[in-house]
């Protein structure tokens, strides 16, 4: 496999480890970018981007980053907090009156951002096409009752996060949530990152497919068992209501929509650049960065059925848990996306890391491919 890009010689072992990913015949395409102190020390890509394995992954290939998008969304919300357009601890209903229905009048933006609001899923099954109807989704969530007492425990808002936070961005910033995120976060840093992709960019989006035969770890199997056996469980509804959530990633209407929980499109460079921008203070002042990265939620996740630890819209490292550590140090913060992509920052080493793939693995939190690369990186520092 020919590996494209460049790397500083100190990171030869990282280059070798990235190349070794492609020893697996199922591995299709991937990108890796590592920045230290804002300088790019590794920028690699390889493999294929299209459905049939005929087109090479290029320097400008982008891919659906799934939940890596959430931290971009949270940073945008925190910028609006810093400007006084939103408040972390004011009721969401102050900005979105309809949201007060069904016992939600006291829920705050902070609770939404750290997955404590009790709204990871919608109980009543919606049609597949509801996924693309913003108004219907926000009205449905505004009417929904929390699944537990808000503030008492947490459960990951896998997709609802996008409508919940996105509607607040829309109301506070006066434009589509994707437009807001791109204007405030991506454009100032020159990141090739999009939430709501223009049709003329579709040609460079990598086609995503699942790897076969790998059952994943215990957490992945636990989640799968619930989804197969308990169609009405909160966890199942969180990922499969509307039922189109899990099957939409390669569809044009998914790429076009502005769903800031899960449909950001970008490359490894945009992830590393984003986290560099957080480390160097370009995106948030130190008080807001402290809010973003301070532990808000820890313990058993009611949605993911594994232990998670969150700041505000970012996942925090759990070094003692194999499926939940980024791998560099306890202060690391970032976000994995479904199937293997991940972006994170490690303040102790001033490292910003981005890994993207179009070969979906079955893991719930961290994918072993990214973790292996981080382990090799640690040995080079």
Automatic annotation (TrEMBL):
Enzyme Commission number, as recorded: 3.5.2.6
Lineage: superkingdom: Bacteria
Keywords for the protein's UniProt record, in alphabetical order: Hydrolase
Protein name, UniProt field: Beta-lactamase
UniProt domain Beta-lactamase-related: residue ranges: 19-372
EC class: hydrolase
Gene that encodes it: ampC_1
One Gene Ontology MF term: beta-lactamase activity
Membrane spanning stretches: none
Gene3D superfamilies in UniProt: DD-peptidase/beta-lactamase superfamily
Cited Pfam families: Beta-lactamase
């Amino acid at each position: 496999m020919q590996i494209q890009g460049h790397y500083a010689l100190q990171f030869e072992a990282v280059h070798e480890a990235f190349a070794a990913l492609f020893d697996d015949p199922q591995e299709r395409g991937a990108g890796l970018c590592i920045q230290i102190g804002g300088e790019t020390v590794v920028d690699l890509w390889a493999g294929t981007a299209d459905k049939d394995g005929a087109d090479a992954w290029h320097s400008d290939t982008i891919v659906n980053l799934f939940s890596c998008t959430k931290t971009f969304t949270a940073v945008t919300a925190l910028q609006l907090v810093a400007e006084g357009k939103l408040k972390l601890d004011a009721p969401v209903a102050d900005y979105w009156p309809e949201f007060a229905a069904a016992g939600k009048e006291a829920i705050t933006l902070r609770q939404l951002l750290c997955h404590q609001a009790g709204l990871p899923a919608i109980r009543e099954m919606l049609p597949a096409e509801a996924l693309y109807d913003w108004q219907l989704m926000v009205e449905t969530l505004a009417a929904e009752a929390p699944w537990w007492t808000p503030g008492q425990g947490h459960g990951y808002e896998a997709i609802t996060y996008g409508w919940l936070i996105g509607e607040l961005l829309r109301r506070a910033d006066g434009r589509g949530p994707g437009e807001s995120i791109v204007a405030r976060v991506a454009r100032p840093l020159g990141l090739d990152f999009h939430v709501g992709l223009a049709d003329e960019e579709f040609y460079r989006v990598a086609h995503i497919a699942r790897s076969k035969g790998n059952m994943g770890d215990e957490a992945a199997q636990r989640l799968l068992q619930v989804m197969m056996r308990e169609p009405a469980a909160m966890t199942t509804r969180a990922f499969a209501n509307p039922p189109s959530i899990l099957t939409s990633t390669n569809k044009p209407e998914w790429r076009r929509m502005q769903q800031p929980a899960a449909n950001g499109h970008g490359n490894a460079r945009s992830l590393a650049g984003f986290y560099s921008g957080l480390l160097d203070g370009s995106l948030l002042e130190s008080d807001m960065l402290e809010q973003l990265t301070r532990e808000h939620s820890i313990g058993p996740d009611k949605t993911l059925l594994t232990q998670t630890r969150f700041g505000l819209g970012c996942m925090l490292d759990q070094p003692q848990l194999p499926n939940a550590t980024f791998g560099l140090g306890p202060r690391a913060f970032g976000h994995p996306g479904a199937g293997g992509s991940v972006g994170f920052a490690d303040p102790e080493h001033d490292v910003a890391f981005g890994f993207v793939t179009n070969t979906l693995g079955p893991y719930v939190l961290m994918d072993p491919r990214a973790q292996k690369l981080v382990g090799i990186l640690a040995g080079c520092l």
